[in-house]
Amino acid sequence: MLVSPFGGLPADAALVSHFRTADGFFNLGLLQNLSANPGYFRIGPDTTGYGRTCAGLAAESPGSDLHDALEDAQVDNSKCLLPFNPTEVVDNFRCERYVTCDQLKSGIMGRRARGAYYSIRPFLPIGMRKYLQRLSLRGWNRKKFPSWPVDRTVDRIMERLLWLMLKARGQQKVPLIWFWPKGKRGCVAMTHDVETRAGLEFCSSLMDLNDSYGIKSSFQIIPAKRYEVSPEVLKEIRCRGFEVNVHDWNHDGFLFKDRDTFLTRAAKINQFAAECGAEGFRSAVLWRNIDWYEAFKFSYDMSVPNVAHLDPQPGGCCTTMPYFIGRILEIPLTTTQDYSLFHILGDYSIDLWKRQVGLILEGNGLASFNVHPDYIRDSRAQGTYTELLAYLSRLSSEQDVWMARPQQVNRWWRDRDQMRLVPDGCGWRIEGPGSERACIAYAVLDGDRLRYSLPDFDFHP
Length: 461
Hints:
- This protein has helices at 13-19, 86-94, 101-107, 111-120, 126-136, 153-169, 197-201, 203-212, 231-239, 259-276, 338-344, 351-362, 379-398, 406-418; strands spanning 28-30, 39-42, 48-51, 74-76, 79-82, 173-177, 187-194, 218-221, 243-247, 280-282, 300-301, 323-325, 328-330, 366-370, 402-403, 420-424, 427-431, 440-446, 449-454, 457-459.
- By secondary structure, it is of the alpha/beta class.
C-alpha cells in the first residue's frame, strides 16, 4: 500500500472518498522515491498538479510548459505505477499548500495596516472601503492560477486518474455512489453572513424573500461585540426552517493572528456554538489557517473559497466538491460574494453568478453562495438578489438540482462517506446510513474522457 505523508493516508484515499467505488478498485503504486521539493506539473493534457514527483520534473510556477507526469506512468498487471502521490497532490490543493510565503505576503495586508483598517472599518463609508479594497486587490484579473471564475483542478485530477485506472484494468465502466442524493445533478447552498445590527434586523425580511422562492438558507452570527443576538431571533430562524451557524468571533480580522490568540478565541467560539446549537462555521473575510482547525469543534466549515482572487487571502481549494479536513467537512465557497460582485466588480447583474453555476454544474458540483443581509437592503442590490433566487428556483425544478442548507450537505456527505458498494447477484447495492437516498452511477470510458451514467441521465463531467 502506498502511504501518503499527509496523516498516513494511502495514496488512493482521496479517490476512494470522492468516488465511493467498489472496494479494491484503485490499485496504485509509486514508480520510485519522490523528490524532496514540490512543484507544478501536468496530469494529462489540461490539468495542473502540484507536489513531489519521482523524476523531479516540476516547475516553481504554473504555466503552459509543464511536464506531463502521466507520460511517465506505467501499467503493471492492472496496477498503475504513478510518478506522484495522488492524495498528496489533492491535499496540496484542498489545503492550499501550493500558496507560497511570497504570495501570502503580497495578498494579505501587513499586520499593522490590517489592524488599522479593521479598527476603523465599521466607521468607513462603503465608498472608502471600496477604494481601499480595490487598491489591495489590484492585478487580481492577471492571476493565471487558480482559474477564474471557477477552478475544478482537483475534480479533473480525480476524473483523469479514474479514467487511467479503467484503462489499466481493461474495464469500460465502474460503479460509484453518486455525489448527491436521489440522483440530483448538482447542489446549491445559500448562506448569509450577518455583519452588523442593520443586517441582523433585516434577517426576518430576508427569510420572507427566500421563502417566496422556496429556498432555505443558513445565517452565520457573530458571537461578540458587533450586536446582541436574543434567543428569540435564533428561535425564529430555526422555527422557519433556516439554519444558524457561527461567524468568526468579533470580525476584527485577527482570529488567526497567532496561535495563542486563535486558541483563546476558538474556545470561546466553540462555547458559543454549543450554547446556540450551531454545527457550522465561517471566518471573517475568509481568513483561514487550515492547520489549526483541530481546535474547532464544528462539524463543518465554510471558509475556504474555490478561487480567492477577490479575497484578501490568496489561494483557493480548486474544487467544487465538499471534502474532509480531518473530522471537519469543508463546504467550500464556490461563487463570488455579493459584496465583491457589487462593490469591487461594480456588477449588479447575475451574469457572473450564472456563469459560475453553469461551470460548477457541468462537473456536478456544489454552487455555494454567501449573500450578506447587510448589503442587499437597498433596492438595487435586492433586485439583483431576487433575480438570483428566481434563477436558482428554476434550476431546482427544471434541471433537478438539489437546493440544500449547509447542514443538509454536511449530513449527506458524512453518510455517503460511510456507504459501501457491495456485489448483489449480477449487480450492486449500496449499504450504509442514508443508503435509501443514494444512487448507483457508472463512470464510463468515452474515448480520452470520462462520462457519468445514471438511469435517468448521461453526460460528460
